[in-house]
Amino acid sequence: MDPAAKHILVVEDEKSLAKALMLKLTTVGFSVKVAYDGQEAVGLLASESFDLVLLDLIMPRMDGFAVLEWMRREDKHPKVMVLTNLGQEEDIAKIKSMGVNDYFVKANISLSDLVERIKVDLAS
After folding, report:
1. H-helix or E-strand containing 39?
2. In the Cβ-directed half-sphere of 89, how many Cα atoms lie within 13 Å?
3. CATH of the domain at 36
4. Residue 8 is part of which domain span?
5. Quick one: what percent of the chain has pLDDT higher than 90?
6. N- to C-terminal Cα separation, the chain
7. Who contacts 55 (Cβ-Cβ below 8 Å, separation ≥6)?
8. Where are the beta strands (DSSP E) in 1-124?
9. Is 9 helix (H, G, I), strand (E, B) or coil?
10. Into how many domains does the chain fold?
11. pLDDT tens digits, 27-78
12. pTM value surpassing 0.90
């Protein structure tokens, strides 16, 4: 896999985490853009093509659930990994029913492990 050929959209309202993810992913060779809320993400998804969307769920202006609905409605099909603080079974079930490829609770995964999972997912 050539990471440079893979484009990732990080959608995260916590700016320090978004910047850390961008730095880690670009360091291993991915092309990365960041959106700090769902509305910004939809704008980027409407105009650009991404191989993966790393999506937070709880954000201002437009949450991750609304972004997923928009993607389904607009027939956008990049891989989607959810990175959130929501860990309730009903949240997980709802997310998986929306076609998400993977789901991580922020407190339960390190940035390094997340980057490794992204590398594996985009290689397949």
Report:
1. helix 38-47
2. 0
3. 3.40.50.2300
4. 3-123
5. 70
6. 9
7. 11, 41, 64, 67, 68, 80, 81, 82, 83, 100
8. 7-11, 31-35, 52-55, 79-84, 102-105
9. strand
10. 1
11. 999 999 999 999 999 999 999 999 999 999 999 889 999 999 999 999 988 9
12. yes
CA 76, 121, 17, 12: dihedral to nearest 10 degrees? 10
Task: Give the phi and the psi of residue 8 in degrees, each rounded to 5.
Answer: -120, 135
3-state secondary structure of 92: helix
pLDDT at 56: 95
Measure the CA–CA gap between 60 and 63, rounded to whole angstroms: 6
Task: Supply 80's token pair.
Answer: 């989607």
Number of H helices, E strands in the chain: 5, 5
